[in-house]
From TrEMBL:
<dbReference type="InterPro" id="IPR001206">
    <property type="entry name" value="Diacylglycerol_kinase_cat_dom"/>
</dbReference>
<dbReference type="GO" id="GO:0007165">
    <property type="term" value="P:signal transduction"/>
</dbReference>
<feature type="domain" description="DAGKc">
    <location>
        <begin position="56"/>
        <end position="164"/>
    </location>
</feature>
<dbReference type="InterPro" id="IPR037607">
    <property type="entry name" value="DGK"/>
</dbReference>
<dbReference type="InterPro" id="IPR016064">
    <property type="entry name" value="NAD/diacylglycerol_kinase_sf"/>
</dbReference>
<protein>
    <recommendedName>
        <fullName>DAGKc domain-containing protein</fullName>
    </recommendedName>
</protein>
<dbReference type="Pfam" id="PF00781">
    <property type="entry name" value="DAGK_cat"/>
</dbReference>
<dbReference type="GO" id="GO:0016020">
    <property type="term" value="C:membrane"/>
</dbReference>
<dbReference type="InterPro" id="IPR017438">
    <property type="entry name" value="ATP-NAD_kinase_N"/>
</dbReference>
<dbReference type="GO" id="GO:0004143">
    <property type="term" value="F:ATP-dependent diacylglycerol kinase activity"/>
</dbReference>
Amino acid sequence: MNVESFRLRSDRSTLVRICNVRPHTHTPLSPHPTYKKSANAQCPSQLLDEEERTTGIKVIRAFLDTTIATIDACHVWSAGGDGTFMWVLEELLAAGVDVNDPRMNFCTVPFGTGNDLSQVMGWGGSVPGDPMGGKLANLDRIVSERLEGQKAYLDIWEIEIVANENGFIKKAVKVDPNFDLGGAKEKRIVRKMSNYSSIGVQGFVGARFEPHRHTSRFMNALEFTDPGRKLMQSSVSNWPTRE
């Protein structure tokens, strides 16, 4: 594992540590937990590949539980969209991390598909140019902006879906061995979800988009555009006309 460490030029008390676990691939890296230190305690930031998520979660929990130093805040950043954010949140909960700890702060870095969560938060739809930058200037800016960002509450819902007696639950995208098209082996699922904008039209378009997800951001935009266009056409055709 290659490790690079540096201190923020804008805040020398903050130590950032980047761990590149796959230096020869272009696999997206997540999650991106960042820790803000108190008076004299150094707090690392670690960039971890998905396969190293257990290590990353343990680092966060250990940092919150440490008695060596006083931790004023723990910033957990997910490099991706709302799906990545929810995945990180559920991993933290599964590991017994108290996500309601007043020191916990969550944020996103827009490396995802649509990045609508990042845009709602005010961080934009993408990271312009090289996220590192010359002498790590861009990374310094990304870290500093989020450390200084305003806090706001985000609604997280736990949704329970129970199928009717003769019904079944069909999942999109990946095949789950617990479900089949002929009738569900499991009739109940419980999922957590975030509600930061809407669950109406956005949910409809998203459901049409999911089965055709691509790795190209441009193709993702096209996939979102087509269902949206069809929905708009349907809405316009139903408008009342003046005689």
